[in-house]
Specification:
The protein is an alpha/beta fold. Helix content is 35%, strand content 30%. The strands form 3 sheets. Strands 6-7-8-3-9-10 form a 6-stranded mixed β-sheet, sandwiched between helices. A 4-stranded antiparallel β-sheet has the order 2-1-4-5. A 4-stranded antiparallel β-sheet has the order 12-13-11-14, sandwiched between helices.
């Protein structure tokens, strides 16, 4: 449904997207994960037709923006990270206005208002909506034209957990009923895990990993993670023989604030000898955290920094 071939985009000295290729099948939900500045939004804007690639080709359903812009727009629904509506229009008026751009009957607006659970707010001015209600309205507008391709740029940023899960439920239903293709950019690992068939991790304009959640996490040596912060940085050889440790990486080395990460088989087996090693060598432990591995840990193991950085 979406074919991106060797696409690059530069802004002055910054190469936002670097010879990137990606294919997305019809009905597939794909999450784009990466830190700020990774190139996610630039890539999405090129798929949307808002930016032109410096090189490479993008096709949507076999069509390209150069020759078929009008047809592609009718196929596509967009929901941006933040959408501004006219303050003194009601929810129903906004839906009817956007529906009129596609020549849709008002019954379609009523259908979408029900779908995004805004029936009680349909006569409220948009300026009086909460953040979650505004995002649901933006999603409703994006779905008006029965899109074959839906592109959501961080649609749940800043929402409370309940509002976020309501939007997830709407998107899950859309996938099962209409076989819509979706690209989702997000900072939330849980959102990508819950909604998407495939996760694509981007950094510095390149794809550094992609696959299902299970496939990506299988990349990792060790099933559990210990992160720690030390006052002084010891020699790496000090930890080399700790029972159950598979991999270790230093995340930063500021004076008095040395942060490291260990991938281990089992936290319960590795943690006692690790703490004993620190004690024997009089190394002050400032902070310690342990957890099951996540996509954020995978990103750290590949780049040395976290997704939210």
């Amino acid at each position: 449904m979406i074919e991106i071939k060797n696409v690059s985009k530069r802004f002055k000295a910054v190469k936002a997207v670097d010879d990137l290729s990606l294919s997305i099948a019809k009905g597939e939900y794909v999450a784009l994960l990466g830190p700020n500045g990774a190139g996610k939004t630039t890539l999405v804007e090129m798929v949307e037709g808002l930016q032109k690639p410096d090189k490479g080709e993008i096709s949507i359903g076999g069509l390209n923006w150069r020759h078929h812009a009008g047809k592609i727009r009718k196929m596509m629904g967009l929901s941006l990270q933040e959408t501004r509506f006219i303050d003194k229009l009601t929810v129903k008026e906004i839906m009817n206005l956007f529906g009129s751009f596609y020549g849709l009957p008002r019954s379609r607006s009523e259908e979408l208002i029900r779908l995004v659970n805004l029936e009680e707010k349909q006569n409220a001015y948009t300026e009086n909506l909460s953040g979650g209600q505004r995002q649901k309205l933006a999603l409703g507008v994006a779905l008006l034209n029965y899109p074959e391709v839906l592109i959501l740029d961080e649609p749940t940023t800043g929402l409370d957990p309940n509002a976020r899960r309501e939007i997830w439920d709407i998107l899950k239903e859309l996938k099962s009923v209409r076989n819509t293709t979706m690209i989702l950019t997000t900072h939330y690992m849980e959102e990508a895990e819950k909604l998407c068939d495939r996760i694509v991790i981007i950094d510095h304009g390149k794809i550094i990993a992609q696959g299902t959640l299970k496939e990506l996490l299988a990349h990792f040596a060790g099933g559990e993670i210990i992160t720690f912060r030390l006052k002084d940085k010891p020699s790496e050889s000090l930890f080399r023989h700790i029972h159950g440790m598979i991999e270790m990486k230093w995340l930063n080395g500021e004076a008095g604030n040395h942060v490291g990460m260990m991938a281990v088989d089992e936290i319960a087996k590795t943690l006692p000898p690790f703490l004993e090693t620190l004690k024997e060598n009089r190394i002050e432990l400032l902070e310690l955290e342990s957890h099951k591995k996540t996509l954020d840990d995978l990103f750290v193991s590949m780049t040395g920094r976290r997704l939210h950085e």
